């Protein structure tokens, strides 16, 4: 006697016709989400870090609460991208490579070109350019890129 009940030929559970077995749409949405949210999180965290540094240099003349909220907001956005690895590891891995690992390595190899490229970014204020220069120079691009890459790889291995 078989230990498991065999379903009749051609039978499928109710609602199965509405389930999608493909992961292409979810992966594409995850990659798009990761590539859009990561630079926003980096920009917020970098701007907040630059403002905190300015607050330390100048003193109580500047607004410290706004800079702290920018750092917290940017960190939370990067946390969301890391948590995205649970649903779409490709999104977290792509974001880590595009916005962290590759820029960090390129800065180590070609620091002058990195400064020129950041200076040539359109629609970026001079304060944001200084913040991004500081982000890349201090190694945070590479650090955050490898952290997101690790989260993406763990998500990928967890799905297998």
Q: What topology does this entry show?
A:
Layout: H1 24-58, H2 64-83, H3 89-109, H4 111-119, H5 126-137, H6 140-159
Helix pairs in contact: 1-2, 1-3, 1-5, 2-6, 3-4, 3-6, 4-5
Most strands sheet: none
Q: Helix amount, in percent?
A: over 70%
Mean pLDDT: 87
Beta fraction of the residues? under 5%
Architecture overview:
The chain is an all-alpha fold and 160 residues long. The chain is 73% helix and 0% strand. It is built from six helices and no strands. Helix 1 runs antiparallel to helix 2 (64-83), helix 2 (64-83) runs parallel beside helix 6 (140-159) and helix 3 (89-109) packs across helix 4 (111-119). The chain is elongated. The two termini are 33 Å apart. The mean pLDDT is 87.
Question: Nutshell version of this structure?
Answer:
With 160 residues, this protein is mainly alpha-helical. Helices cover 73% and strands 0% of the residues.
Main attributes of the structure:
mainly alpha; 0% strand; 160 residues; single chain
């Amino acid at each position: 006697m078989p230990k498991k009940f065999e379903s009749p030929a051609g039978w499928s559970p109710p609602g199965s016709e509405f389930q999608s077995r493909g992961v292409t749409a979810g992966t594409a949405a995850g990659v798009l989400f990761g590539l859009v949210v990561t630079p926003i999180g980096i920009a917020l965290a970098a701007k907040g870090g630059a403002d905190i540094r300015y607050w330390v240099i100048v003193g109580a003349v500047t607004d410290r609460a706004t800079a702290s909220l920018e750092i917290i907001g940017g960190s939370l956005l990067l946390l969301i991208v890391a948590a995205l690895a649970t649903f779409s590891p490709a999104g977290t891995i792509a974001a880590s490579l595009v916005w962290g690992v590759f820029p960090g390595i390129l800065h180590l190899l070609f620091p002058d070109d990195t400064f020129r490229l950041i200076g040539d970014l359109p629609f970026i204020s001079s304060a944001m350019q200084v913040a991004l220069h500081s982000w890349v120079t201090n190694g945070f691009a590479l650090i955050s890129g490898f952290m997101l890459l690790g989260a993406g790889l763990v998500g990928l291995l967890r799905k297998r």
